[in-house]
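Problem: given the chain below (128 residues), write out its structure.
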Amino acid sequence: QVRLVEVGGSSVQAGGSLSLSCTAFHQYRPDSVMCVAWFRQAQGKKREGVASIYTDDGSTIYTDSAKGRFTISGERGKNVVYLRMAGLQVEVTAKYYCAMTWLRCPTTFDYESSFGYWGQGTQVTVSS
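Solution.
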């Protein structure tokens, strides 16, 4: 059984920064390797990927919209992954979800079914 808990969503002014965390609670070895990804869904829009990290080697994947402004980080054995967001713009307003798979990160965010575990999400609202 795996439970993902996202923390850190808030309302911020455009240009500000925010850091989200995703903690994976599970009953397996503390140093278990996992792929954790962040997705977001704006109101009325389809959910889209943001970034992912494979905790074994720290390799990361970003969507084009996240590159340069978002940083995903995490450490094997810590079971916590962070998404640091800088220079926030109104268009990134959305509910942010973390998702996890025990496998290597998929090379594309098109296949959400690759991730078997999802958190409840945390709202990020950016105002101008």
